[in-house]
Design a protein that fits this description.
Number of strands: 5
Helix content: under 10%
Strand order of the largest sheet: 1-2-3-4-5
Radius of gyration: 43 Å
Strand content: 35-45%
Keywords: Cuticle, Repeat
GO cellular component, one term: extracellular space
Protein name: Larval cuticle protein A2B
Distance between the termini: 149 Å
Pfam family, one: Chitin_bind_4
Number of helices: 1
Order of helices and strands: HEEEEE
GO molecular function: structural constituent of cuticle
Length: about 130
């Protein structure tokens, strides 16, 4: 036969100073149902069947050399516009574009030198007599 287990020591009493700050025992409760906030969407009946706008800007900065412009207009489903800018190689790129439901988006790109090409002086070739 086995010897009996030793009896555990009596519990240590909690000092009064600690007892006042002891964490309360939480009771397990059934979880509360959480309702997500409902986002209200305001729907307005504003619909413009023929939207129209027109805008443009122009930047010419002598300090940085930045030079660009843009104009655009819309009437219904047709958009027309043009923008231009100075490319790093010194050419001016201009893009003229249109967009409509029938033809889609179309753009024409042009590149023009900003600095005029140096004029080449025409020199008459020396006239040589052919022997006879």
């Amino acid at each position: 036969m086995l010897p009996p287990w030793p009896t555990p020591p009596p519990p240590t009493p909690i000092p009064l100073a600690y007892a006042a700050h002891a964490a309360p025992i939480a009771k397990v409760a059934t979880p509360l149902a959480y309702a997500a906030p409902v986002a209200k969407t305001v729907v307005t009946d504003e619909y413009d069947p023929n939207p129209q706008y027109s805008y443009g800007y122009d930047v010419q900065d002598g300090l940085t050399g930045d030079s660009k412009s843009h104009v655009e207009s819309r009437s219904g489903d047709v958009v027309q516009g043009s923008y231009s800018l100075t490319d790093p190689d010194g050419t001016r790129r201009t893009v003229d574009y249109t967009a409509d439901p029938v033809n889609g988006f179309n753009a024409v790109v042009r590149r023009e030198p900003l600095v005029a090409a140096p004029a080449v002086a025409k020199v008459a070739a020396p006239w040589l007599m052919q022997p006879q």
